[in-house]
Structures are given as C-alpha cells and as structure tokens.
Amino acid sequence: MKSVLLVILLATIGYGQISKTSHGGGLNIGEQGAGIFYHGSIKHYKNFNIGADLRWYDVRPTADSPLYDPYTGRFLTRNSVSLVLFPLFGTLNYYPFEGKIANNFSPFICTKIGPVLVLDGDEETEKFLERWSSPKSSFSYGGNVGIGVEFRNPGRINYNIELSYDYLPLGKTIDTYDSVNGIILSFSIHR
After folding, report:
1. Which residues contact 140 (CB under 8 A, 6 or more apart)?
2. Would strands 182-190 and 158-167 be described as parallel, antiparallel, or unpaired?
3. Which pLDDT band holds residue 17 (cuts at 50, 70, 90)?
4. How far apart are CA 81 and CA 63, in angstroms?
5. What count of Cα atoms within 13 Å lies in the side-chain half-sphere of residue 86?
6. Residues 42, 16 contacting (CB under 8 angstroms)
C-alpha cells in the first residue's frame, strides 16, 4: 500500500511538469505546533485541482512555554522537544460551487496524503548546530482533510484560508509522541 501511494504521488508530480502550474507558500498554525509550506498546483479541471504540498512543521508541546530567568536575564524553555516533520502530500481540492458564485471567492474541500519525514534532534544540547548535526530520522505516512476558501484575483495573487485536520502518525514513540494529529489553520498566497 505504501509503495502504491508513493507511485501515485510521483506520477502526479511528474505529470505536472508538462501542464500549467501555479505555486505559492503559506503558514500553518496547529494544535501540536506551527510551520511553513510550499504548494504547487499541478493540474486544473473544472471542479478539481491536483497539486503537491511540502511542509516544514515544528512540533511544540503545550507545556513548552518560555520562562524569564531573572538571575541570567535569559528566556528559558521547559519540556523542550526537538521534533520536526516534513510532510510531502499529494493534494486534491474539490470546488463544489465553481461557476455558481458570482464573487471572487470559491469554497473548497481538500484532502492530502503522502509520506512524512520525521527528524528528532538532540534535546540535551542548547546549541542549534549541535542539536541538529545528526538527528534521528524515520518515515511514516499521513494525511489531511479539510475545508477552505480561495479568494481569487484574476491575473494576480490569490489567497487561501483552510481549516483542516492532520493525521500524522509517527510509526513509533518519539519524545512521548506516537502521533501529532490535530486541527490546523493554514493561510497561503499563490499565483
């Protein structure tokens, strides 16, 4: 099953190299952390849009809050976790009201699926380069389903707002996490 999903994703990305594409980026804010993403639309149909998403998602526990240390004058974090995910999702957006709404906004339903690279840095060190010089890595598969609105400006920049649910199992327990599932709010800009 995993190899079938990977073949479908690679075929979708490869097919997009010969079709009209549009690209963009954005910000994800979720229950388990936050990150940025890059999106490419590969193929446009009347009510569907096929594309690909590459995300950088930094996992932050809810108890990971900065504290001010008056003795050193520095901000310290408790319960620090160094866990970063790189989901590469094939995306499918369905626009049920395409051509039925007279304004420049279009609601959509989206689904995403694909492989996820998980990097676990060394939490014991405070220096960035030492923490990420040799992280533990693993792969898993995940997905996302949600709803959103695309605000269109023909010939210009378009804006998306999306509310979705991430299903991101890690495949094993990493830093007390076996998954980082949760609700995600995404804002994106694309041409």
Report:
1. 115, 116, 118, 168, 169, 170, 171
2. antiparallel
3. very low
4. 10
5. 7
6. yes
What's the farthest any 2 CA atoms get from each other in the chain?
A: 63
CATH of the domain at 68: 2.40.160.20
Q: Into how many domains does the chain fold? A: 1
pTM of the predicted protein model:
0.76
CA angle in degrees (0–180, nearest 5) for 107-16-104:
25
**Using one digit for the tens of pLDDT, what is the confidence trace for 24-45?**
999 999 988 899 999 988 888 8
Tokens coding 160? 């998306």
- Owning domain of residue 186: 2-16+23-190
140-163 per-position pLDDT tens digit: 999 999 999 988 877 778 889 999
**Model confidence at 106, in pLDDT bands (50, 70, 90)?**
confident
State the residue for tokens 């533990």. Answer: 136
Taking the C-alpha atoms of residue 41 and residue 191, their distance in angstroms, rounded to an integer, is: 10
